[in-house]
Amino acid sequence: MLTFMSILAIFSEQIAPYDPNRQNLILRLTPPFEADETGVTRFFLGTDGLGRDLLSRLIFGARVSISVGLLAVTVGGIMGTVLGLVAGYFGGWLDDVIMRVADIQLAFPFILLAIMVLVVLGSGVFNLILVLGVGQWVTYARIARGETVSQREKEYVEAARCIGVSNVQIIFKTILPNILAPLVVIASFNVASVILAEASLSFLGLGVPPTVPTWGGMLAESRDQLLGGSWWLAVFPGLMIMFTVLSLNILGDWLRDFLDPRLRN
Fold it and tell me: Is residue 53, in this structure, part of any structural domain at all?
């Protein structure tokens, strides 16, 4: 499923049968698999309230959701891992400052904080990635800090200090490779949570601009049409979100078992 979604995201222009923003009010709210006067089915998943092809919008929406999820997790993962490594290795006041900042951020509900920041900065893909990425750093920082504290006094780290290896090299070349496994597992789960957060913000109109098709934005647009029986406008975007998030969660479970020798059979 993830491979299928990735192919849709990468080759959207080649796969999508129509321009996702092409409107045709005459064919608005066409049901799925309905044939025209000539007996040809032009829109396999139907059209929305503006006559846009739902299948094409779903395909282009995969690009936005997956790219936002991956980039936001990359930003948050790098930021949190570096801060966690520094806090755990050096300790002292630096550790206290970084962890107290993390505690302050955890005290605020993330979705409300994201709404507040996006209202100030405005909608857009870059702002969305920035907000979602910064909101993820705390998780990585706390895990990296705890793992680093347990590793910094071990023999291989002491041996590196004895032969004159610098602190920067010890942190990033000696300790980091030994604590990557839990961070990778958390990253796989976080991609799923970021995709849900992006869909939620787009549903509220605070994600990407309305001209960019997203699964959350399509759900928001379907609200006015559901009472009229246009069920496909909400069902298909919802299924795309569900299958993508479910696949990422299953991948996270597999990575946890694969990277932890104690859980292998």
Answer: no
